[in-house]
Amino acid sequence: MFRDYLSQIITRELGMVVCGEADNIRDGIQIAEEARPDIAIVDITLKGSSGLEFIKDIRSRGLDIKVLVLSMHEEDLYAERALKAGAMGYITKNEASTEVVEAIRCVMKGEVYASRKLTSKLLNRITKKGSSPPLSGVESLADRELEVFQWVGRGKTSREISALLGLGESTVETYRSRIKEKLHLRSAAELYLRAGQWVRDHGG
Known about the structure:
By secondary structure, this protein is mainly alpha-helical. It is built from ten helices and five strands; from the N terminus they run ααβββαβαβαααααα. Strand 4, helix 4 and strand 5 form a beta-alpha-beta unit.
């Protein structure tokens, strides 16, 4: 329903055409390779994987497609990750109706579209690079670790996560161990509790 709504907003604009849509990485990559759109609007949450992996995938394939991330997640945790992965803009779904067209036009001009809050955060990090405190808590997790953490929070076992992400079960176990270490968790039970609470709080 949201994709239909977004499509209507975009197609009303002169010179903009929606050439395809997908809810998973495999179909998204196929559309990207066949239709070669100028820009892809990507959600962080996709079936079976993360929009961050989609961004990295199209970059690794050498596809010249600009990316704007539009997500239900607030920017504090994901916006910087998306920009590092190769996106050129980040807006939340709450802002979509008023900002998506402006964001698309901005990104198509080769400019980065970000909120004033995010811009300020990134500039502060650059200017205070030497004195910035290290990341802690969930922010300290790498992209794949965060993805595994979310699936754990949704109650998935290592075997199920392995199938969902196309990873070996031992690789998932390694990610789980790293997550427990970074979050100072002592057991699988503590990991499930922490991840479940995070998913409930953040709609992950």
